[in-house]
Here is the input.
Amino acid sequence: MRTVEWDYERKTLRLIDQRLLPGEFKVATYDDYRQVAEAIWAMVVRGAPAIGAAAAFGLALAAQYSPARDLPALRTDLMDAAETLQEARPTAVNLSWALKRVLKVVQDPALQGSGPDSVERLREAVLTEAQRIADEDVAVNQQMARHGAALMGEGETVIHHCNTGALATVDWGTALGVIRMAHEQGKQPHVLVDETRPRLQGARLTAWELDQYGISYEIISDGAAGYFLQSGQTRRVFVGADRVAANGDVANKIGTYMLALAAYDNEVPFYPVVPTSTIDLSLAHGGLIPIEERDPGEVLSLQVEGERAAPSGARARNPAFDVTPHRLVTAIITEKGLVEPPFEANLSRLAGA
Amino acid sequence: MRTVEWDYERKTLRLIDQRLLPGEFKVATYDDYRQVAEAIWAMVVRGAPAIGAAAAFGLALAAQYSPARDLPALRTDLMDAAETLQEARPTAVNLSWALKRVLKVVQDPALQGSGPDSVERLREAVLTEAQRIADEDVAVNQQMARHGAALMGEGETVIHHCNTGALATVDWGTALGVIRMAHEQGKQPHVLVDETRPRLQGARLTAWELDQYGISYEIISDGAAGYFLQSGQTRRVFVGADRVAANGDVANKIGTYMLALAAYDNEVPFYPVVPTSTIDLSLAHGGLIPIEERDPGEVLSLQVEGERAAPSGARARNPAFDVTPHRLVTAIITEKGLVEPPFEANLSRLAGA
Here is the structure.
């Protein structure tokens, strides 16, 4: 199944519960958009493209189960639902991008009329747009994967941060999708998987996915990436992104900036793999991207042999993302091809294309 | 008590078992140098200065419990014991530095004679030298601490990697010793504690020590250091070291290199705090420092809510140290004062001083 999937029979949204992997594969079912907002916040579903699609389907749920009996009432309900969903997480722009796309349909003046029939038509239009976002995501991922895999030679060792695979998207993946495509092309990549503290998306989700695909990998501590870059064992670094600013600065999972520094210091190419829906031309630079700070418990809850590592009463800070300055980025891989420096000009040209 | 302490009554070596902290404070007792070698390898005791002192006392145990009845036999036993202790861990030069110091006493041609009396005198000489190493370590730490603390202003936030406190030394600490001194001087430092994967010496040991001293701190994921450096919240970075090469390259706990890159990129001063016993002028540069690779289980054994994070069957790599090129180092803080670039000339001058 897809990571984010509409159940047409039951009119519910199904999400793979990523908090339980790799120990347990469980699918959670939602019929209330408020639960979807909560699921996004709690990271049942995570990954910029996946939360975009989940939020879009969240609006489809809001439409489906709204008690509204006419168009204006339904439109109001959907605006409210979009606000709730928007607030679930601040950094990934795909969330607001997807909501805006669906709201454009909601506000389409061509959709007129009164009574149950018009309400039903708007419900359907919202679901159709959400489904389109999901389907496009899969297609876009595979386009990016082909552009990225074309860069890779035989038997390359690459470093990958966080999870950017099928679980981070509707299906297939962004950065991990590139590696997957190279694998399908017989290039036999080997992946050094950053475990990605604090939530361990690398050790938990990326390792699990690579096992499914039969791709060779080894998990490393995030701090060890520098060693493997320095020792000449790594050919490329692939990461996803939660938001790319107009100048090419990249917000991504915490730790990405230090990884990019180490890649740059060793002249190893560093590639964010991002659908154009992740590019936010409204922000001039990365310093303007809102950075979510999450519960310190995510840092402190770590256990070794059943014992919590940190002393009781310990305090922690937990910024979930950081910003990699564009000067450290070799090229941004999008579905429309590679974007190289100067990023400001080339990203703006891409948006026009 | 000290982290590494000789029990004169029972003629045993006592080590705080650092694998159990912060959950349990337990002191392990040794009367066999082979167990001490094992304890160093298993990281009952860790930290370059602490393992140096532990190895020296290991030789004192070997001398104490050797069945040798004359000097040549005892000298042979001690040479064998030194070899076993030397092999316990490869990266920290303090281990071989301490062993060499004790062996110099062992081989002192002035110590002559035959029979039990001469054997007893060598036993005493070995213990005296080990105790001198331990005592000097404490004094040297406090000298470094004063040099380092003099750099600090009021209320500075600093980043600290791994554990370099009393637990990493005989007592007091190197990098953490600097912070401790600043605290005692009323400068109210605030420490961002790198949790330091995979063995979490930061979250476990440094946080525990800071709690004891009443110093303000917050634990962060190693990958988050870049964020706090970038955001201008951090004034300095202090780390220890396991070996410093003649050109100033610094081998230290894995993750240090990426931290140094992030400090450098944000013009935040980066200071290794190292006793001169950690400086190895016999190695021209850091590429010649042997880097220990430890059991992948240290990376894979991590648990969250009682469940192992990585999939079963997952593989990992676990280099325990990395090398920070001297170009990223602001100054090396030693007991003889600050060593600034050019490091090659200034370290060699220091050795002569």
